[in-house]
């Protein structure tokens, strides 16, 4: 069976030598220049699932590159230059509900979700150091651990050899982006160092007709550094060591809306890729994170603002390990056996009930820890020359421990007095999940496939213990949340012709106990877990819905147009998602409605012409359908159509000049609507000019 390989460097400030790649077999793709699977070989089981791979050999922001995959989205439409970092979870197939990721994101096998909140720190990644992203749509990942409610996204580091690559670009509103990639063979191993930096004056997020005196440009400044060393220990065994750090400062466009996010990761992995004997891998990793965020209350006329809430210190740590073995059991059978462990711990430290901008009346400290311990077994059988069968299961034991919430008075007449001192009961449970499927090569060009799966996700520390605010709206945490559980099935076909590739998948998913932000009341008033909510806001709490049902279709197409114009290629993709909430009790009002932040329609199309030296042109079109800001479907975000473009000219073998435009026609891409109908938008039209040099 063949998988799709996409190469679309369309919205990057500077891009170099991204040659279009037509549809190839997985084996060919792994051997292609710039595409390297860093762990064990891709399993035979993947033939049964909806999988797509995109090249990342550009400076394009990772989160924007992933948006080209139909059905894949972040909680909000804005990217990491203007979104609140705590809203940048990632999901697939309409299984949203809040900002926590429902798709597992891995970098060289290491989980990347924030250990406290489940969102993703996108500014910490430099696409220049990555070869590709591989997306498997559908839940129940089996070998990749728990949490894959909607799918799995794998990022792979690039095998760079000996080179130095430098790039810099200047854009609208004093925007600057720069990156460095340094590769050197060191001993018998390979050392890779990458760094990236971005800053800008930003734009005013509130639409022009609603702005007041408080509204100003939302500045951002972000940087990341990664060091990777890979060395052979034996003929078949390889050591991979990675260290990564990032820092991220953003403002939301008015006073008291600053947020800061930073972190560091480290991992070590051993991989044995024996051709004839046992294959195995062993991984250990640590994640360290911290963020702080301030919230301002803006007056109805938007001419004044005051501090209402601040989370001044939210530290968290994630620890984990994973192993897998593949014993030699026969030419037509692949067996995978393994296990994994992950522990997260963190807390939120908050001030609220501000008497003035600098004087909080109360303080809150809340947090806890979670852990999962899992084991899996998966087998694939080449039943006939044309038919592959696969099936497997896993068992997970989970715990939620040491949960607490403490609130104290900070000012007279009773400074230091304890208002709340709650210790939550420890909880634990066991989850059984499985998946299975088939792939049948009906002809040399046509493959039919089908799969069914069960998956689950443990609520994050953020969902369990951290309240938050968006504008005047406040959402309380819920320490009693239950795990989410998904069951689903899909059928698909892949056609790989000489110049055309088409993939079509229809799917059905039911997400039971989906965690969502449920509206319970309107302000003004004092509400448990969040404090005061003004008359312009609403009070919500995270709760388990009965379920979210999601069904739809995904279509991916690629066209090699070299017969018309040499090096010309095109791509089009579309997804339709019909998602509906089933709810009762406190959430009965949302029964039958569409989940928040889930569009029905999502489409993209791209045309790329590029020579081997980097000279070329590209245009990208993207449409996203309307979606609702809130669970009650009362605030609709309009649909949007955007156009991006790029022109590049290779001055010589080492120097590339590029011009680029984002959102050419300055379309209004709405990202949020408050309860008082204040509308925020994503990035406006932005022009870039850049240079890149490469020395080998």
UniProtKB/TrEMBL annotation:
Q: What is this protein called?
A: TonB-dependent receptor
Q: Where is the TonB-dependent receptor-like beta-barrel domain?
A: 225-664
Where is this gene product found?
Cell outer membrane
The record's annotation in Gene3D superfamilies points to: TonB-dependent receptor, beta-barrel domain, TonB-dependent receptor, plug domain
Q: Does this entry carry the keyword Transmembrane?
A: yes
The record's family statement is: Belongs to the TonB-dependent receptor family.
Which PANTHER family does the UniProt record give?
A: FERRIC VIBRIOBACTIN RECEPTOR VIUA, TONB-DEPENDENT OUTER MEMBRANE RECEPTOR
Q: Which UniProt keywords apply?
A: Cell outer membrane, Membrane, Receptor, Signal, TonB box, Transmembrane, Transmembrane beta strand, Transport
Q: From the UniProt annotation, give the residues forming the signal peptide.
A: 1-23
Annotated TM spans: none
Start and end residues of each TonB-dependent receptor plug domain: 51-152
Supply the PROSITE patterns for this chain.
TONB_DEPENDENT_REC_3
Q: How does it sit in the membrane?
A: Multi-pass membrane protein
One Pfam family named in its UniProt record:
Plug
Q: Which domain of life is it from?
A: Bacteria
